[in-house]
């Protein structure tokens, strides 16, 4: 497979970006009274002015990872994924998550599925220290098949403490934090590889099954808030769908990875099974790095204080582009 493997599996990243751009082009209205919009659409989260604070909102879902849960008849951790994908998008702007609502769309209700989803949502809320205020469950037979789980998260921060990436400077260090695995992105391609080249019960060298790895919950990077409280952080990035391309949300800099974190074995299996090129792997998956801090070198020890597995993975230059081990990826 060449660089269109993800497209052939059913997800066209370039088309998705163009479609979202078309949607955003029509979103021109802004509230005219107090509590107006205080950010542009397109960053990891949007926010409104609220006195000395900003209130932020993020929305995301579990995606086709739900199909893996269906295949394994195990929905106990997808709630963690749902909360993680939301709160991690708030942490990158130093926004503290405080409340969450979920949305479940299903073709047919199951008490056992709902119980297990609730278990995961509760654990995700505990890890992120937020309250689940409520949600909506919709039975949409004929419109959806199976089960979909999404949610929206509310965050808060003092205005002057919000981190947008505007302070990023050439020479800054990039510090990578390992992911727990595949997280909740690229599952359409990953599932296709399993269906074509193996089964969910096949074992990797570690002994874990492919199903275990694809269902492993997304890591929640809650301690990012503490890092920002103790040292100057110029930018942060949550590596989600689009892989390293997410860094471009922070500005047109050169993101040079000369010591990338090693990808977990699930990524090695996917690449080998589908003969997928390195650039496509890095534009589809997190490839072992779920979160990045961009900051002066003197702040690295603070990151490692809260994330002992953190490592310097590269640096910022003034020449736009994303480079990996001396080669330009994008």
TrEMBL record:
Catalytic activity entry: 2-formamido-N(1)-(5-O-phospho-beta-D-ribosyl)acetamidine + ATP = 5-amino-1-(5-phospho-beta-D-ribosyl)imidazole + ADP + phosphate + H(+)
Pathway: Purine metabolism; IMP biosynthesis via de novo pathway; 5-amino-1-(5-phospho-D-ribosyl)imidazole from N(2)-formyl-N(1)-(5-phospho-D-ribosyl)glycinamide: step 2/2
UniProt-listed Pfam families: AIRS, AIRS_C
UniProt EC number: 6.3.3.1
One Gene Ontology CC term in the entry: cytosol
GO MF annotation list: ATP binding; phosphoribosylamine-glycine ligase activity; phosphoribosylformylglycinamidine cyclo-ligase activity
GO-annotated biological processes: 'de novo' IMP biosynthetic process; adenine biosynthetic process
Domain PurM-like C-terminal: 170-324
Main location: cytoplasm
Family statement drawn from the similarity comment of this UniProt entry: Belongs to the AIR synthase family.
NCBIfam families: purM
Designated name of the protein: Phosphoribosylformylglycinamidine cyclo-ligase
Organism: Methanospirillum hungatei JF-1 (strain ATCC 27890 / DSM 864 / NBRC 100397 / JF-1)
């Amino acid at each position: 497979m060449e660089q269109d493997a993800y497209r052939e599996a059913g997800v066209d990243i370039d088309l998705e970006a163009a479609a979202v751009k078309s949607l955003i082009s029509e979103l021109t209205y802004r509230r005219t009274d107090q509590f107006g919009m205080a950010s542009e659409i397109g960053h990891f989260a949007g926010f409104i002015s609220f006195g000395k604070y900003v209130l932020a909102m993020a929305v995301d879902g579990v995606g086709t990872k739900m199909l893996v849960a269906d295949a394994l008849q195990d929905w106990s951790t997808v709630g963690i994924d749902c909360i993680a994908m939301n709160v991690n998008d708030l942490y990158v702007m130093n926004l503290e998550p405080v409340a969450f609502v979920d949305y479940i769309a299903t073709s047919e209700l199951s008490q056992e599925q709902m119980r297990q989803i609730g278990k995961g949502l509760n654990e995700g809320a505990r890890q992120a220290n937020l309250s689940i205020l409520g949600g909506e469950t919709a039975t949409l037979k004929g419109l959806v098949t199976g089960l979909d789980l999404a949610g929206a998260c509310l965050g808060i921060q003092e205005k002057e403490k919000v981190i947008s990436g505007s302070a990023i400077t050439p020479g800054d260090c990039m510090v990578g934090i390992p992911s727990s695995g595949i997280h909740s992105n690229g599952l359409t391609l990953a599932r296709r590889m399993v269906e074509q080249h193996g089964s969910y019960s096949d074992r990797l060298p570690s002994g874990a099954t492919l199903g275990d790895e694809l269902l492993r919950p997304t890591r929640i990077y809650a301690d990012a808030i503490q890092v920002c409280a103790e040292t100057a952080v110029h930018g942060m990035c949550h590596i989600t769908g689009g892989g390293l391309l997410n860094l471009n949300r922070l500005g047109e800099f050169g993101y040079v990875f000369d010591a990338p974190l090693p990808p977990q074995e699930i990524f090695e299996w996917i690449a080998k099974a589908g003969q997928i090129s390195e650039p496509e792997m890095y534009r589809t998956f997190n490839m072992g790095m779920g979160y990045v801090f961009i900051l002066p070198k003197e702040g690295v020890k603070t990151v490692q204080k809260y994330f002992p597995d953190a490592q310097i993975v590269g640096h910022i230059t003034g020449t736009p582009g994303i480079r990996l081990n001396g080669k330009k990826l994008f």
